[in-house]
Structures are given as C-alpha cells and as structure tokens.
Design brief:
Elements lengths: L2 E6 L17 E2 L2 E2 H10 L4 E8 L4 H10 L5 E6 L4 H9 L7 E4 L9 H14 L1 E7 L4 E5 L2 E6 L5 E10 H13 L8 H5 L6 E4 L12 H16 L1
Parallel strand pairs: 1-4, 1-6, 4-5, 7-11
Antiparallel strand pairs: 2-3, 6-10, 7-10, 8-9
This protein binds cytidine-5'-triphosphate (CTP) and magnesium ion.
Length: about 230
C-alpha cells in the first residue's frame, strides 16, 4: 500500500539538553534523523518524504541528506513554533490522494512491518495511529493529591506514525488552524471533529528520544537488534 510521509524535524530538543537539536546527535555515528529517514528510504511502499526543518538548520540537513544518500525527500518545508505548525506546513505540500502518515523524526526505531499494518488500517478505516498499552498504574491528581486511579485497560500510549487519507489530514489541520486549536498529536485534531481513529498495536521499541536517558535505551534497542541479526 503506497503512502507519503511527513516527518517533523524542526524542534529544539530542549528536554534532551544537548544544546542543539537532538536529531543531529549521533547514534552509532549516524544522526538520529538519518536513522529515521533510512526506514522510509528503504521501504518500497514509501513514495515520498516531506521533511519539516528549522530554516537555520536547512543547509546542514541538506548536506547530511546528500552525504547519507537519502533520495526520497521530495520537499523541505520550514518548521513552525509548534510541532503542529511544522506538520501543517508539510500537509499543504502533499501531492494527490491516498494515504499520508506523520512520523516524528525523533522515533528512529519504527519498523516497516508496523508501518504496513498501520497503512492497511488507515486504508480500511480512514485514520489510524500506532499505540501501546500503558504499563504503569496511572492516577489522576489535583496538585499532589490523588483524585482517582484511572482504569488501565482503557489506556494507550500513543506514538507515531499516525496515518490518514490525504484529504482527511488536510481537513483536520485546516480546521485546527481556522479555529486556533493546538493539539499534542495529529489524531487529536481528528478526534475533536468526531472523526473516528483506529488504534493499531505497536511495540515498545518505538520510543521517542526525548530526555538524555532515552539515549541509553536507544543503545539497548540497537544491541538487541544486532544480537537478533547475528
Ligand atoms: N518538532 C517540529 N517542530 C516543532 C517542534 C517539534 O518539527 N516546533 C518535531 C521534533 O523535531 C520531533 C517531533 O516534532 O521530531 C516531536 O517533538 P519533540 O519530541 O517534542 O521534540 P522537540 O520539540 O525537539 O523536543 P522538546 O519538546 O524537548 O524541545
Ligand atoms: Mg517538543
């Protein structure tokens, strides 16, 4: 099932505290965002990549794309002040119809098997996101006073990719822009309009590199994969 992918890469990586965009940090000598792009570069179903970048990093990113021989990036769009605005700038550049997904550049451990499951769900149901069951007991609190324990069996930790029909993705972002709504992911822009979104169960390897300790988890995931392939 062919699809296009939007990859927001225009954040600042404040919580990583590296003093620069965390996506330019290297894992095994390769920048984080290149790891992510390689998954799509090598996926025959991926027809094109739109990358949202901070204009001040555009030249450096273009050089890295050339150096690592990434050929599927069909557009570099300027990032915005929030992730949603970065994604919207790319949504406006989507070509044709079919399926488009949004995937954080900061999630390098996505795999093609899950991408395929997600694309098929989006093709069938219109909108679908990858998610994993929440493992922790989650409490709702006011300040540090517990109000209640939230029933865990209904809780999912949502990841990216999140996949939509191109027309739906355009519609939900246009509406959010018109109504000045800022959500924390793309699915929330659909949910608020009553558009149903399916959950596709993913895996716990698809972490978002957010804080410094995530780099240790990343190393562990890579080692596990190396052990498997030997
Ligand atoms: N992103 C983006 N434009 C923004 C903010 C974020 O394109 N204005 C991208 C990031 O580059 C990342 C993804 O959205 O690939 C998820 O965001 P997050 O993990 O929050 O990254 P940062 O915003 O860079 O990190 P932080 O919130 O710690 O500053
Ligand atoms: Mg952020």
């Amino acid at each position: 099932m062919p699809y296009q992918v939007i990859i927001p890469a225009a954040g600042q990586g404040k919580r990583m505290g590296a003093g620069k965009n965390k996506l330019l940090l290297e894992i095994r000598g390769v920048p984080v965002f290149i790891h992510t792009l390689r998954v799509f570069e090598s996926d025959p179903d991926c027809t094109g990549i739109l990358l949202a970048v901070n204009p001040s990093e555009k030249a450096e990113i273009q050089e890295l794309l050339a150096f690592y021989d990434i050929k599927k990036v069909i557009g570099l769009v300027p990032g915005g002040s929030e992730r949603q605005y970065s994604v919207y700038n790319a949504v406006k550049e989507l070509q044709g119809d079919g399926i488009a997904m949004v995937h954080d550049a900061a999630r390098p451990f996505i795999d093609q098997h899950l991408i395929r499951k997600l694309t098929e769900a989006a093709d069938q149901d219109g909108s679908a996101v990858l998610a994993v069951p929440v493992k922790d007991t989650v409490k709702k609190a006011a300040g540090n006073q517990i109000l209640e324990t939230v029933e865990r069996s209904s809780l999912w930790a949502v990841q990216t990719p999140q996949a939509f029909r191109v027309s739906t993705l355009l519609h939900i972002h246009q509406k959010a822009a018109e109504e000045d709504y800022l959500g924390t992911d793309d699915a929330s822009l659909a949910e608020r309009l009553g558009i149903p979104v399916k959950i596709v169960e993913g895996n716990y390897d698809n972490i978002k590199l957010t804080t410094p300790e995530d780099l240790y988890f990343a190393e562990a995931i890579i080692r596990k994969r190396e052990a498997r392939s030997n």
